[in-house]
Amino acid sequence: MKFFIDTANVEEIRLANEMGIVSGVTTNPSLVAKEGRDFVQVLKEILAIVDGPVSAEVISLDAKGMVEEGLRFAQLHENITVKVPMTAEGLKAVKQFAAKGIKTNVTLVFSANQALLAARAGATFVSPFIGRLDDISQDGMELIRDISEIFNIHDIDTEIIAASVRHPVHVTQAALSGAHIATCPYGVIERMIKHPLTDQGIERFLADWGKMNS
Ligand code: E4P
């Protein structure tokens, strides 16, 4: 399983990229709004840092508007992946992007049927939101398992991005459940790195080393 970083904060992207773990970036309108910066400028900065798919989400609700927005994003770089909501209009837009060889990420996927439809429309990626399903007492991870099994049975090459990842356990479970990618907020990556026994181990090694040299 690969990692994308789920943020529009360029500094977080730079830090994670320096660790060599980032294969792509996902943004969404809420994450972009949080930064309060010009979206195209933010995209340009991200594209200069990360060599991998960078999802830019459209805000139009009709296919025509989605395609217009997406084509503008796609002009920026071949790594641009147009993020489209899982609606009938979104599927129409995905079909058009696929015909033009433009990558798409179908977002706000909450059922296996939605994922299957998105894949058949030509989506490069589907993004099941596991955290938001957990929030309403449904098992987000079961959805990842179902989509993974369906895509395997039917030899579908659309990649599954485990999205709405809230904590490190989600990441391990997504990897075990067949997600190709987990898109993680920077805070989750930080928590994945940490282990108290690692910290204690370093402390003890340094203390022993210090004793030997005192
Ligand atoms: C994915 O592409 C979305 O940007 C993101 O994972 C949504 O996460 P949230 O449910 O924590 O907002």
Account of the 3D structure:
The chain has about 210 residues and is an alpha/beta fold. Strand 3 (about 55), helix 4 and strand 4 (about 80-85) form a beta-alpha-beta unit. The protein has helices spanning about 10-20, 30-35, 40-50, 65-75, 90-100, 110-120, 130-135, 140-155, 170-175, 185-195, 195-210, and strands at about 1-5, 25, 55, 80-85, 105-110, 125-130, 160, 180-185. It has a single domain, classed as Aldolase class I (TIM Barrel). It is built from 11 helices and 8 strands. Helices cover about 55% and strands about 15% of the residues. The termini are far apart. The radius of gyration is 19 Å and the shape is globular. The chain has an 8-stranded parallel β-barrel with strand order 1-2-3-4-5-6-7-8, surrounded by 7 helices. The mean pLDDT is about 100. The structure holds erythose-4-phosphate. Erythose-4-phosphate binds near residues 26 and 129.
